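User: Can you help me understand a structure? I only have the sequence.
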Amino acid sequence: MNNPVKDLAAQDLNHIFERFWRKDTARSDGRHSGLGLAIVKAFSDLLNFDIRADLDEDRGFSVRLSL
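Assistant: Let's start by predicting it. Here is the structure, written out as C-alpha cells:
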C-alpha cells in the first residue's frame, strides 16, 4: 500500500526510521510523534526482517518488509 505524500523528498528517506524524526522541524501540528516507523524498524530488526522505505512520485511513499 502506498501513501500519497506532498512534502517528502528522497533525502528524507535516510531519516525515516529515526525516533522522533519528522519532516516538520517545528512539530507544530501535534498529530504525530515520530515513533511509528521507529517501532516498526525495531521489531523488524528483532525478527531479522529487512525493511525498506521507498518514494515514488507517481505512487507515493511505501515501506516494505521482507525475510
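Now, to help you interpret it: The helical segments are 36-46. The mean pLDDT is 84. Let me know which part you'd like to focus on.
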